[in-house]
Specification:
Helix content is 17%, strand content 33%.
Length: 258
């Protein structure tokens, strides 16, 4: 009888472990760890810390989206998002909370295909829209075969509770340096605003190595998330994990007419 009880206990323990998403350590290196958002490793020093960097370049991001030109020829973004695309994992890389996708979602920009790789959060927002900084900004990072980037930016403001955020945050909290497997389908289009009007300009990644030649598409309309949802991300991420506004240096900022 004792052996039977022990066997049953072991079986229950194994099955319960299988139901839990797997946690792993995030693979990091010195280049991703020796910069931060404050002090001697903060944004003012990124160009000094990185060996091959563009952080002191002339076409950096984020910027204040102001004095833009309305371009009648800007068309809606050609998005190909599916509710069947697999959300692979979530990681706390020490700089943000990042969700990684398996191959599936993509967009078409200038007749080229850019695959959605991951999305992450900045709190508060990095880009300003006519001088206004939102409490949260989501970056959807897309890349083509030539390693060029198109990044969609979604602003979030405090308001109604977001069902998609509930699902995402159900996999949190997660400690710094950990990765938790998800491997479930997720429709990222649920986190996009209903009005798909946007601003567009040429800039850079907003974290080291600050690579330039990045096409930014910033949605005009913000989505709503609850104060509690914002506070949870704020608790888990570095305080104020945003880069300050960068000089525009004569770059044109375009806006859709819708």
């Amino acid at each position: 009888m004792n052996r039977l009880l022990i066997s049953i206990s072991v079986l229950v323990l194994v099955l319960s472990c299988q139901d839990q998403p797997k946690k792993e350590k995030v693979e990091t290196n010195d280049k991703s760890n020796h910069w931060s958002y404050e002090g001697e490793t903060g944004p003012e020093h990124w160009a000094e810390l990185e060996g091959e960097t563009h952080c002191n370049g002339n076409f950096q991001s984020p910027i204040n989206l102001v004095n833009y030109k309305v371009a009648e020829d800007l068309e809606p973004i050609d998005l190909h998002y599916s509710e069947k695309t697999i959300l692979h994992d979530v990681a706390n890389n020490g700089h943000s909370i990042q969700y990684d996708f398996e191959r599936g979602d993509f967009l078409i920009h200038k007749e080229d295909t850019f695959h959605l790789k991951q999305f992450h959060f900045h709190e508060p927002a990095e880009h300003l829209i006519e001088g206004v900084r939102y409490p949260l900004e989501i970056h959807l990072v897309h890349q083509n075969e030539s390693k060029e980037f198109v990044v969609l930016s979604v602003m979030a403001k405090e308001g109604n509770n977001s069902k998609p955020f509930e699902l995402l945050e159900s996999y949190l909290p997660i400690q710094k340096g950990e990765m938790k497997l998800i491997q479930r389908p997720f429709d990222i289009s649920q986190n996009l605003p209903q009005n798909r009007g946007y601003f567009s300009y040429q800039g850079s990644l907003t974290t080291p190595p600050c690579s330039e030649k990045v096409t930014w598409i910033v949605f005009k309309q913000a989505i709503e998330v609850s104060l509690e949802q914002v506070e949870l991300l704020k608790y888990l991420m570095p305080i104020n994990n945003y880069r300050d506004e960068q000089p525009q240096h004569g770059r044109a900022v375009y806006s859709t007419s819708f």
